[in-house]
Write the structure tokens for this entry.
Amino acid sequence: MKSGAFGAWEVALLILLAAVIVLMSSLSPYFLDLYNLIDSTFSFAEKALIALPMALLIIAREIDVSVASIVALSAVVMGVVAESGAGLPILVLVGLFTGTLAGVLNGVIVSALGVHSIVVTIGTLSLYRGIAVSIVGDDAYTSFPDGWSWFGQHYLWGYIPAELLIYIVATVIFGIYLHTTIYGRRIYAIGTNPDVARYTGINVTRYRIWLFALSGLLSGLAAILLTSRLGSVRLNIATGWELQVITMVVLGGVGIAGGTGTIIGVTLAVFLIGFLTFGLSLINVPGLVLNIYIGLMLIGAIAIPHLMGRLRQKMTASRKDA
């Protein structure tokens, strides 16, 4: 798991993705239908968007487990504003602003308290979800303006989902930002050693708040796409997305200890999990079993690099003794 664009981990993911495609096509004759494969991206495009800033956060030794709650809060606020008769541009701005504000609050609290972000965002996970639930209650918001369904249901050129194109564009932007700019190199430096990065003149606090704000912004965008696709906002919206987003990132080769990972790896993991989930659903595997597979992949993605590192250490030590 390196900071370069393509390494051994990405090659392994590519092989796994090919194996999943071969396996699932042998189990279901409908899997390789191109229309079905493209439509399957609806089930993971919104989560994949959130995985992009999550990758940057984890590379920088941070994490945001409140992302699903930010999605829920942004969706509920948009639902309330939509009920008042607001137009489409206002709703988009409200969704993006709500998500960004929640992300900035996460970053400010993490920086002010000086505690690890997993502690802070576990708290804001409950806070944001609690606010959303207290607003929507047992009701549902369904009064969205004309044209709202475009974001989550429209096909460009009659073939490519708008959601998929938005994700692809975002992936390219994040890839360029992380791998070709000085800002990306600074994120890797922060993740490798925040204290050393600070001594070299990097404003670690500013980067930390910026990354949390970015996570909130993309969560707000995901809320726009999700509510547009569903056409409603309900109590349980985006429940459990945290695990799936983090699994995409860690399986993609982003080191949970920070300092390593690539956007290409995360993208391969997104499609690996997405196509695996789609294929298993075609053969009627229950959702609970799908969650077990996702949990196992997360454990494996964390454990395998750790075990490989220990094995390399032992081999190095044995060669020195020899």
